[in-house]
Design a protein that fits this description.
Length: 117
């Protein structure tokens, strides 16, 4: 019985461990964002620079277009966008995580309620 619970504890800590290593926690942001984040002024420039080369209007990779406010909002709201920009193993954009400041802007946008302008 005791052995069994050690096994469970081990499995559980492996689960927690593998989750925490996959994402860089945003608490590490050295410059916390105090202002309200908006799509047009704050989020769109990041998406335009880092994502549109592959997720543009024509033939977007993974069928995911990130051209409009609503498209970016949908992908953020369903969790995929935030998960992938913080995914150390398979990040978006591919190859390297964006700076923690940029990723924090998108997290704050979600927190602030997806304001457009
Ligand atoms: C060099 C091309 C490239 C760039 C730049 C790029 N992506 Fe991707 N993206 C892909 C490819 C290819 C896939 C499908 C394969 C995969 O999931 O790894 C994908 C998949 C995704 C997915 C998962 C699919 C889905 O429907 O949810 C998300 C979310 C995503 N990208 C978001 C982004 C965001 C946000 C950026 C910019 C910060 C970005 N990508 C930049 C090529 C790119």
């Amino acid at each position: 019985m005791k052995k069994y619970s050690y096994v469970l504890l081990f499995l559980f800590s492996m689960m927690v461990f593998s989750c925490t290593t996959a994402e860089i926690p945003l608490e590490k942001n050295p410059t916390p964002i105090t202002q309200t984040v908006k799509y047009t002024t704050d989020v769109k420039p990041i998406i335009d620079n880092y994502c549109l080369s592959c997720h543009g209007a024509v033939n977007p990779n993974a069928g995911l277009s990130l051209v409009t406010y609503q498209q970016v909002r949908n992908s953020t709201q369903n969790g995929n966008l935030i998960a992938r920009i913080n995914d150390q193993v398979n990040p978006m954009p591919q190859g390297q995580l964006m700076s923690v400041e940029k990723r924090a802007i998108i997290a704050k946008w979600r927190e602030d309620g997806y304001l457009e302008n």
